[in-house]
Every structure is written in structure tokens, then in C-alpha cells.
Amino acid sequence: MTMEDPRPDYIRMSPVERLMPQEEMLEVARQPSSLLIGVPKEVSLQENRVSLVPDGVALLCRNGHQVMVEAGAGVTAHFTDHAYSEAGAQVVYSPRDVYKADIILKVGPANRAEIEMFRPKQTVISAIQIAMQCEEYFRAVLSKKVTALAFETIRDKTNQLAIIRAMSEIAGSTSIFIAADYLASSEFGRGEMFGGFTGITPSEVVIIGAGTVGEFAARSAIGLGALVKVFDNSVYRLRRLQSNLGMRVFTSILHPKALVESLRTADVLIGAIHAREGKTPCIISEGMIMQMKDGAVAIDVSIDQGGCFETSKPTTHKSPVYKVHGVTHYAVPNIPSKVPHTASQALNNIIVPIILDIGSEGGIENMLKRDHGVRQGVYIYNGILTNQFISKSYNIPFQDISLLMAAFH
Predict the structure, then answer these.
(1) Domain tally for the chain?
(2) What is the torsional sign of CA 34, 36, 39, 43?
(3) How many CB atoms lie within 10 A of CB 19?
(4) Which of 332, 366, 383 is the last residue of a domain?
(5) Fewer Cβ close by (within 10 Å): the C or N end of the chain?
(6) Residue 179, Cα to own-chain centre: how many angstroms?
């Protein structure tokens, strides 16, 4: 208003001015939040990986977050407590101190003692290994009112299973090096050099599954000079594998007759089937294993989801193999843990950007509302089950995570 004209400004404007577009009030940017992140020492059997490496700690600390690392958490992956401390982490000596954090970063699923240390509204990011859990496990986690994300279902911006793909690449390549080691063994193998030698017939490798594990197993086997045969029920996946390899390899659908003929001459069998939900189907029967050569090596990478060989049973890194019908079986559920330094760095490269996003968005709720890929990794949200497969398996009520996010303000 002015002394000359006491009317408000919006009345004194001409009719034309009152109809003109005005400036839009933009949304106020979210205030970044400082997070307290806890990295406990892994207690799962033969789990040598760690979810956060010193370089990741340094990046998080530079962005205003605090990190607590339990003493010895990175030792088996060759990351010292001193390295974490130098990166800016607080090294603590009690798991109870670590579990006071806002976000807990684990590799293996939490055990009962760890679940007891969970706090309401806490965020837990780890593997879940659904095929190896029971109803009591999920009800115990639900009772703690946490938000839990599973490595197995987190997706990236391209809708790929980010952590699964990274670990699958490592598992595929590593499975071939494991096979080469046992094939050369006089006790468990045939005393043969993997891939062969000039003037000698090359090793034959049969791979079941043309996904990421199968592709990287094929890459490594071909690189060592082996003859590779890949079986899968999806012609699309077989075609994609050949395209990614940049060369023609033997491919076939899972036709029993063709499969048995290939197994009879195979030196190495790799099981690389991945199920979208639940357990993998059994592809290789005991009768098919009986057709294989004495001293052949069978590696079931799918054992994390129950295995795709009828003769498979989970083993450990300390006692990884056993023989059935003269065939050496390797069925360690977490093959990437055999190369923990590399696998830990791969995990870190996926997890750190997620944590940075949570901080920049002002909290896990805001971040999940915006990021559809990470949202798919949630199987429990504030004590509410959001995974339909778990719900059907154990008759536990669930709610769709997208609907819960739509209700969040």
C-alpha cells in the first residue's frame, strides 16, 4: 500500500496485470541428514567379506556421515582396523555399540543374537538367503520394527539386480578357477591341466544357465582354452550370451538327450541357474551325474537358492568338496567369499551411493519414495512385511511397498 492510494497492491494492478502468470513457488530442497552407519564383524560361517571398505568410509565421512566399524570386521578381507581408522571411522570393540547406528551394513543374514540388538526405525541392509531361512527368522525380524533391505532384490537405475550381478560376475569367473584347481588334483580330479595343451584335446565345460554367472564362467573357461557348451531354456538368453562373448559357442536348450550326451564327455559341470523367487529348479538328476566321467568336477553355483543338481548339498570353504558317483561336487553357498577383498570392494561400490542418497534425501523414507530400484530391495518396512514370496511361503500378511510409500508424507 502507499499513502496516495490505500488499496492493496493486488487491487491497484490493472486487470491485465492481474491475469498475467506469476512466479511459481518451488519446493524447498530437502535438508540433507547426517547418518550414523554401523559395520559389524561378520559372524556367518566362512563369511569373509565386509560391506564397507576404507575408501567407502572416507567418502561417507567427507559427506558428513559417521561410521562405526567393529574391530576385526575387515581382517578376513585384508582391510585393517588401522585403515578404517585412518579413513575416518570409529573402531569399536562391542557389537552392541555398532548396533546403535541408524543404518547397519552387513553381508550375511543376521543371526538370532544380532536380531536381538536391532532397534525400531533402524535400517538393515544385508543378504537374506530366503531358501535358507524359516518362518521364525522372519517373525523375529518383523518384531523389531526395522526397515530391512535384501542384497538379492536391490536394483539399479537400469533395473538390473545390482549386487546379484556383481557377485554373479565374480562367482562365474571364480568357479572356473576352482574347477581348474580340483581337476588338476590327483585326489579329487583327473590330474588334468584345465584347458588342455597343444596336441591334447581341450577340457570340456558344460554350463547350465546363460545368465551372468554362466556368461562369466564361459568367458574364463574360453580364456583358458576350454571347449564350452551352454544350456538354457531361453533362446533369448543364449543369443544374448553369444552376443556378449562376441563369438560363437555351442548353445542348446535344456533337451535331456543333448544334455546327457554332453555330460558324458564333460570334465567340468557348472550349475548357474538363478530363480527370480525362492528355490532353483533341479536340472541335473542323480542319473545324469552317474553318466559323467570319474574325476569330473561339478560346481553348483546355484546352491545359494537350493541348488540345481539333485546330488548337491551345501558345503563350506573349510570343507568344500565331496564325491558322488566319482564326481567331485563343490557346493559352497557364497563363492565370492573365496575372493573377499575383490568381492568387498564390489559390494562397497554399490552400497556407498545408496547411503549417500539416503543422506542427501533426508532419510530412508524420502529416498525409497524416489528410488524405485532400491525400493524393490525392501522386504520389511518399519515392521511390515513387503515381500510377497515370503508372505506366501510362511502365511505372513504383507503390504505392497509402493502403496506404503504413497501413503508416506
Answers:
(1) 2
(2) negative
(3) 8
(4) 332
(5) C
(6) 23
